[in-house]
Automatic annotation (TrEMBL):
Protein localization: Mitochondrion membrane
Transmembrane segments: none
Gene Ontology CC annotation, any one: mitochondrial inner membrane
Keyword Transmembrane carried by entry: yes
Organism: Probosciger aterrimus (Palm cockatoo)
Biological process, per Gene Ontology: calcium import into the mitochondrion; positive regulation of mitochondrial calcium ion concentration
Name of protein: MCUR1 regulator
Length: 191
């Protein structure tokens, strides 16, 4: 072992300060033993370069193995998420088509009902004109107000029905969007 101080110079220094040669050499040898013991303790906790390189290689091999596993997992998870996303898109398109079909059906039904009511009103009006000619003007006014009320209630009913269908469509669309977002966020979190 190398010592990082001059033992002979220390012996001479001790002799100059009143120690004998034998005492100085004993003190220096005791210091050397203490230093060697301390260095042994320090060296036990230290790692050699070779051991450090081996540990580094082991860690790097573990990291590369984990990277390969992550790539494989990512590809399989990504393909599963992609197929799930495609299924959700198809379901969303199907629901959208069904909702649009339902809306057109409701609109055509409402138009038919309005046309029927109009023809009934026209018939009632023509009938009421006959009654008016026979001096029943007050009954005609009542009939007209009743038909106006019927038309107004039918129109209001149609408007509420359209609003409920719109709300149902919005609910389905929002639910589908939130489902897609949840799947995307889940994938993002896993990734």
């Amino acid at each position: 072992r190398r010592l990082f101080f001059d033992t002979h110079a220390l012996v001479c220094l001790l002799e100059q300060n009143g120690f004998t040669t034998q005492q100085s050499e004993v003190i220096v040898s005791a210091l050397v033993k203490i230093m060697n013991t301390n260095l042994d303790m320090i060296y036990k906790d230290m790692v050699t370069k070779v051991q450090q390189e081996i540990a580094l290689q082991q860690v790097m091999s573990h990291i590369s193995g984990v990277k390969k596993d992550m790539i494989i997992l990512e590809k399989s998870e990504f393909s599963a998420l992609r197929s799930e996303n495609e299924k959700i898109k198809l379901e969303l398109q199907q629901i959208k088509k069904e909702v649009m079909d339902e809306i057109t059906k409701v609109c055509t039904d409402n138009k038919l009902n309005l046309n029927l009511e109009k023809t009934k009103v026209k018939e009632l009006v023509s009938f009421d004109y006959l009654l008016l000619e026979t001096s029943q003007h007050s009954q005609q006014d009542r009939a007209l107000t009743q038909t106006d009320r019927k038309i107004d209630t039918e129109v209001a009913d149609l408007k509420t029905m359209l609003e409920t269908h719109k709300l149902d469509n919005i609910k389905y669309l929002a639910g589908s969007i939130f489902t897609c977002l949840t799947v995307a966020l889940g994938f993002y979190r896993l990734w």
